TrEMBL record:
Gene3D superfamilies, per database record: Sortase (2.40.260.10)
InterPro entries, sorted: Sortase, Sortase_Class_E, Sortase_dom-sf, Sortase_E
Species this chain originates from: Blastococcus goldschmidtiae
Record keywords, A-Z: Hydrolase, Membrane, Transmembrane, Transmembrane helix
Sequence ranges of Basic and acidic residues compositional bias: 1-20
Location of the region described as Disordered in the Swiss-Prot/TrEMBL record: 1-65
Membrane-crossing segments per the record: 71-95
Domain of life where this protein originates: Bacteria
Protein name (record): Class E sortase
């Protein structure tokens, strides 16, 4: 059989003809081309330890920071960290606790309403003693807002005050002769008494119980706004030291053992804002007697005073 490539063998170009550097047999009329030596990889250079030692000796020594600069840097970082922690604490105390207390107040209000609805009329009227931590009434202060309501708990420890206003143990109950004394935080934990310094003589403070409403009015002269002009001599508002416990006496500012001269209400909170250095005190007197919730299901007229 004929070779199909036989006629083209002489025309075929070998690879060394195309790339002479690859070497190959000599061609007619052309001297042989030597193979390219550079195609072989050269061995990697070997480091000379002696040269490394010389380079290290010639390198400039690294300067160390002075001790005072290192200490100052450490103190600065510590102060920045402490500042961030303090800032987070303030945000938590002022804002986060307000949200948590508001949720807790909603729960307390719902539980209290259910309790009142399930009690007999006789049990509702028998509000003489309450266990520590139990809710027993609702405080309403129109001056502090149309929707201002705070559930009151028995006790004035932080466990109670973190949930809302607390009732001083052994002080009078709503409507009784003596001094119904309530404490509350000024800032944080719901801030129930944040704007207590805006109260004016004659302002109503309403306390709601299971079956009645009780209206107290801030002492002083409503006509002039003078909180020190009440005929009883008891100021409607004043600032005292934390040690002035006589403000919650049966008769405010009188001896603790003295007989009560009327039915009073006292609100206490920290002063000034963001400080516990002093106490801001509001004194009020009961205006009339108990108002039945049967007669006033939506509350007394005092709730709508502005």
């Amino acid at each position: 059989m004929a070779d199909p490539d036989g006629d083209r063998r002489g025309d075929r170009t070998e690879r060394w003809d195309r790339v002479p550097e690859l070497g190959g047999p000599p061609l007619r009329g052309r001297p042989p081309v030597p193979a390219r030596v550079g195609l072989v990889d050269a061995p990697p250079p070997v480091d000379d330890p002696a040269e490394d030692d010389v380079d290290q000796d010639n390198a400039a020594p690294r300067r160390r920071d002075p001790l005072w600069r290192t200490a100052a840097r450490g103190v600065g970082e510590l102060l920045v960290t402490a500042g961030m922690v303090l800032l987070l604490f303030v945000v938590y105390e002022v804002y986060v606790t307000d949200l948590l207390t508001a949720q807790r107040q909603d729960e307390l209000s719902e539980d209290l309403r259910e309790q009142w609805a399930s009690e007999s009329p006789a049990a509702r009227r028998a509000l003489t003693q309450v266990e520590i931590g139990d809710a027993f009434g609702v405080l309403r202060i129109p001056r502090l807002g149309e929707d201002y309501t705070r559930v009151v708990l028995e006790g004035t420890e932080e466990e109670q005050l973190s949930q809302g206003p607390g009732h001083y143990v052994d002080s009078a109950m709503p409507g009784e002769e003596g001094n119904l004394a309530l404490a509350g935080h000024r800032v944080g934990k719901g801030s129930p008494f944040l704007e207590l310094d805006t109260m004016r003589p004659g302002d109503p403070i309403v306390v709601e119980t299971a079956d009645s409403w009780f209206v107290y009015r801030v002492l002083g002269d409503p006509a002039t706004g003078d909180v020190d002009a009440d005929p009883s001599g008891i100021p409607g508002m004043h600032v005292v030291s934390p040690a002035a416990v006589e403000v919650v006496s049966p008769t405010p500012n009188a001896a603790a053992g003295a007989a009560p001269s009327g039915a009073y209400l006292t609100l206490t909170t920290c002063h000034p804002r963001y400080s516990a250095r002093q106490r801001l005190i509001i004194h009020a007197r009961l205006d009339g007697g108990a108002l039945s919730k049967t007669q006033y299901p939506d509350g007394p007229d005092a709730l709508y005073e502005r």
